[in-house]
Protein 1
Amino acid sequence: MIATVLWERELHQRGGASAFVVGPDCVVLHERRTRLVCLERADGTVRWDVPLGSWPRGIVLAGDRVLVLPQTPFLLSCIDLRTGETLWNTPTPRWTGNLTVHSDTVVIGGWRGYTPMSGLDLADGGVRWTTPSPVRSLRTLAWAGGVLTGSGHEAVLLDPADGSDLARWRLPEPLRESDGTAFVPTGAERVVAVCASSSLVTFGIGADAPARLGSYDPFWAFGYVHDSVWMVRSGRGCLAVDPADGTTRWSVAADRRLVADPLPYADGLLVGDANGGIRRLGPDGRIVEGCSLPGRRLDALEAADDGGLFFAAKGTFGSFTLTPDPT
């Protein structure tokens, strides 16, 4: 296969430091340390370019709006996705992190235990509820009619309307302390969580207790694609396991550091490495074919729901396509 760059934009900062989110017809991207831009997906032209602040801890699309939580200033901003107009700003406590939108409620806070958690009205930023004191929450997830949070041995599904508990689980092992993904949905009512000692636990809505899937080689990223839970190993390579019982489905070694996240592609995955290499894996994890984005040190790959492909690299962000090699 052949990788062709459709368009590319200078970031004036490291690609891995550039938070971004891909929408149906645009990409919203943090660049130049203090700017937020919206690019047309088709050709990379700028739809709008507005001042924001430094290093967002979260960017989330919500219909025709985008929510952004920069490290500084201490504000949560809601921006019109079409025009770049700021619809509302809400002051936040210092060190506020975690940003999730569920229906008409924005849930923030709990990052590293520094702040309370709060639910805000998506329409105007008005506060609907706030916990009485700081709480510790790993990265939150909108799931199963609520917002999933957790720390230590507990996972909690919050009602976004008032912050009350919809469900609570006692896990067999403590959740891994990390700023990365903590929970991955494997269905409408089940998730897999990453716990200490590089282990995975599955739980869901219903009467069954959380179950340990297994302990694996150290990994730094994980997700769910094509009915398998994948892990990017810290020691290079990828592993995929069955989300029901944790048995290994396939394992592939890599001679270079892989970037997160592997992407669904055809009946398998696309994986990228830091040197710009891209490989297509089949459903059994075997390498089917490969190519590269020459001269680019990749930090991340992303795919849109319709199959559009994007990359963040050292100093640039762009869109690319894959076509069969005619030879």
Protein 2
Amino acid sequence: MPSKPFMPSAFRDLPPVVWTLFSGTIVNRLGYLVTPFLVFFLASRGVTGSDTSYVLGALGAGHLLGPAVGGVLADRIGRRPTMLIGLIGASAAQGALFLAPGVWTMAAAALLISAAGSTVSPAVYALLADAVESERRRRAYALFGWGVNIGTAAGGVLGGYLAAHGYWLLFAVDAGSMLLYALVVTFRLKEPKRPTRNDRKADDGIGYGVVLRDRLALLTLPLFGIQLFVYSLTEVALPLAIRDSGLSPAVYGAMAAVNAVLVVALQPLVTAWLTRLPQLAVQSAGSALIAVGVALTGLADGVAGYTVSVVVWSLGEVVVAGIAASVVANLAPAHARGRYQGAFGWTWGTARFAALTLGVTVYTTLGPAVLWWTALVAGTAAAAGTLALAKRIERRTEHALAA
């Protein structure tokens, strides 16, 4: 764990397990190299056109399957075993994809990579909730997200260098980083005490019935899903808009760098400043800021305009860091934290998949203006809906603490 003088003040009082997950996540995300360069790798193997969509579709489908499975496993067999299954399985799948002889074997390997990799997140989020009480969870999840962004930003630079020297290096580093994270899990993390049988409700079953019977969760998760859909348009529709403006792909790379620098530099400071405010109000304000920033993309026609839009939604991303996962953790009973986080992960995967499919379809068929207006209206409406639920969520959290 880092020495206290070098810790950002917002995170200084968090327990060692949170810092272990933070460090392991940076290592893991440093190796998150294959997916961003997958299209180029496939082209090098002669896979183009519609065949590429089969592999990418399988990759997207795995992000819908993995969180659901990971949530159940995290509650049934434990956090650490679930993380190890996901990390080792995804590492093996990297090798399978590199060695796959045809399109369908590539698609199967891509499905396994994303499904196994996304199995890890519900277990990590549940472990964070186990380790940190309600008042500090937002900061714990923000720190974890900060680690994801640090690793991803550094990994983007590393990936470009390695790809130029051979795609096999991307697969080797990706698989190696997962195995290194698995070693961290094995030797540095302890499995938390499991709830006793008396702590569980008899009718919870082994699946997601406990979540589906929670009316407040069923209201909250779709609102988060809409907000995540709007945010995911930054990965999907922004490149299309830059292309249609006649700008080079290097401009999109520059916009990604602007986002990375802002998030990595500002998140600890903003989290420390906003932690004293009601988290649902902050979440709503940040989500509205993201919606406005995404909608501003429709007004941009040059580098300056796109930079303004990226700065606006990046600031929104910084504001909301860690809040949604913390809210879901606070809604969950202790014995079902994995499944609640699995449901949240599935919501995230569905939102991203919808952005890849529905978002692109709206952009290309109905026109960019329709998509940008939809993002603005849907994003601000979801932010307002989240704020309207604030009192109910606060009462639920207070009741759980009292119990």
